[in-house]
Design brief:
Elements (H helix, E strand, L loop, with lengths): L6 E5 L3 H10 L4 E5 L11 H5 L9 H4 L5 E4 L3 E5 L4 E4 L4 E3 L2 E4 L3 E3 L7 H4 E3 L3 H9 L6 E5 L3 H13 L4 E5 L10 H14 L2 E3 L4 E5 L2 E4 L2 E4 L2 E4 L3 E3 L2 H5 L9 E2 L12 E3 L4 E2 L1 E2 L3 E2 L4 H15 L13 E5 L5 E6 L5 E7 H19 L1
Parallel strand pairs: 1-2, 1-7, 2-3, 7-19, 9-16, 10-11, 10-16, 11-12, 18-20
Antiparallel strand pairs: 4-5, 5-6, 8-17, 13-14, 14-15, 21-22, 23-24, 24-25
Helix pairs in contact: 1-9, 6-7
């Protein structure tokens, strides 16, 4: 692809898509399709939920000096045989190469009442406004014991000490962490007054709270952070996908069914030798975008490689957790906590924005 200039369409301006577009645009003509004009810094949504100012730089600033045209629109259909992308604006874009980076969204798993009564992480700003304007403090139930749920629960508890915060998980809250990591999270919960409900699978969400297989949990507000799922467009377009809808790619992140399409970020099922299948996260999405930018501009011809180093969690503004891990994402015993962990997390989160270019 380095012999002559190509027209490359990138759909999605998250961590993977924006990192790829900024790098590919140094050499090729790129059209970036995304409905938003500002970058959604997804790993800071817990801060937005607590009413803190959003850190959302303009896409134009990230892409300045690149051969990238931003189409502020949504993709409605892909014609892979004709190499066209159809937009909700009525426009059809032709491409030489397509980069599919639509990422993921919060999965509600068909739980009755979740869509009507729960706030997914994507509605963080609405949740903040609802809590700010409430007539009196109440109870918030955060569903999900993973990183997003833990960060939301601790951030809300610190920002709104008059509210009762509960975190509800089908398994153990923070169950993937080492014993030292879980112990620190539980200490922070105790300090902030967060009540943890382990092994309580949610069966329904109502206006009064949650129904679980262990009984009911009262809540004035419900926040949903259980897990993520890919968008349906890849499967609808005919790309080879896994049962959960992620596109199957080769070692160079090309679709195994359509080699003119690259799939990166949460939308792709990526398996790395010696590591295994990568999880959906900013930590894996942005490196994929960086790699693809190098691949399509002649900076590398090697397969995509990746290894985990740490897990970082914000636990409010005054605490944090850095969990050391092996390359394959298995836990090491050692953790960093308190101010040290908080500063490391801050450096990484702020470094993400610099790294997009």
């Amino acid at each position: 692809m380095t012999g002559q200039q190509q027209h490359i369409v990138v759909i999605g301006a998250g961590y993977a898509g924006l990192a790829a577009a900024a790098r590919i645009g140094k050499q090729h003509r790129v059209t970036l399709v995304a409905p938003e004009s500002r970058f959604l810094h997804r790993v800071r949504e817990h801060e937005a939920a607590a009413g803190r100012p959003a850190q959302r730089p303009e896409l134009a600033k990230v892409l300045r000096g690149r051969q990238v045209t931003h189409r502020q629109a949504r993709v409605t259909e892909l014609d892979l045989a004709g190499r066209k992308v159809f937009l909700d604006s009525g426009e059809a874009l032709s491409y030489d190469t397509l980069v599919y980076a639509l990422g993921s969204r919060t999965a509600l798993h068909g739980i009755p009442g979740a869509a009507e009564h729960a706030y997914p992480a994507e509605r963080a700003a609405e949740l903040a406004e609802r809590m700010r304007t409430a007539a009196q403090p109440g109870t918030v139930a955060v569903v999900g014991g993973g990183p997003t749920g833990i960060e939301l629960a601790t951030e809300l508890a610190e920002a709104h000490p008059a509210w009762q915060i509960r975190i509800v998980a089908a398994g153990q809250v923070g169950g993937w962490l080492s014993p030292n990591g879980r112990a620190h999270v539980n200490r922070v919960f105790g300090r902030l007054g967060v009540q943890a409900h382990d092994r309580s699978a949610v069966t329904a969400v109502t206006a009064a709270g949650l129904r679980t297989d262990q009984g009911t949990i009262d809540a004035d507000l419900v926040v949903w952070a259980a897990s993520m799922e890919p968008r349906e467009l890849a499967a609808e377009a005919g790309l080879a996908v896994t049962p959960d809808g992620r596109a199957v790619v080769d070692a160079h992140l090309r679709s195994v069914s359509h080699p003119e399409v690259y799939v990166i970020g949460d939308a792709a099922q990526v398996v790395v030798e010696g590591v295994g299948e990568l999880r959906m996260s900013c930590a894996t999405a942005q490196p994929m975008g960086v790699y693809l930018g190098k691949l399509l501009t002649g900076g590398t011809d090697k397969p995509f490689d990746f290894g985990y180093v740490i897990h970082c969690l914000s636990l409010g503004r005054k605490d944090g957790l850095v969990q050391l891990v092996h390359k394959d994402d298995s836990m090491k015993p050692k953790v960093l906590t308190g101010t040290t962990a908080r500063l490391i997390k801050g450096l990484i989160v702020n470094g993400v924005l610099w790294g997009l270019r």
